[in-house]
Design a protein that fits this description.
It is a single chain. The chain is mainly alpha-helical and 89 residues long. It has one domain. Helix content is 94%, strand content 0%. It is rod-shaped and about 120 Å long. The mean pLDDT is 82.
C-alpha cells in the first residue's frame, strides 16, 4: 500500500515524456496542419470542378452528334431536291 502511494507521488512529479513530445509537436505542426487543410479544400473544389466539367462535356458531345445527324439529313434532302430539279430540266 505504501509502495502504491509512493509510486503515485513519483509519477505525479515526473512529467510524461509523451505529453511533452506531443505538445511540442502539435505547436510546431499546427501551421502545417492548416496548410494541409487548405490544400485539401482546394483539391476537393478542383475535383468538383472536374466532375461538373465532364458532365458538361458529355452534354456537348451529345449535342454535336445530334447536329451532325441533322446535317446529314439536310444534305440528303438537298441532294434529292437537286437531282429532281436536274431531271425536270
Amino acid at each position: 500500500m505504501v509502495l502504491n502511494t509512493s509510486l503515485a507521488n513519483i509519477t505525479a512529479l515526473i512529467p510524461n515524456p509523451l505529453e511533452i513530445i506531443s505538445s511540442s509537436l502539435s505547436s510546431t505542426l499546427a501551421p502545417l496542419m492548416g496548410l494541409f487543410k487548405a490544400i485539401g479544400i482546394v483539391i476537393l473544389i478542383y475535383i468538383i470542378f472536374l466532375i461538373v466539367k465532364s458532365f458538361l462535356n458529355i452534354r456537348t458531345t451529345i449535342r454535336i452528334k445530334q447536329i451532325s445527324q441533322d446535317v446529314k439529313e439536310i444534305k440528303e434532302k438537298i441532294n434529292l431536291l437537286t437531282k429532281n430539279n436536274l431531271k425536270k430540266k
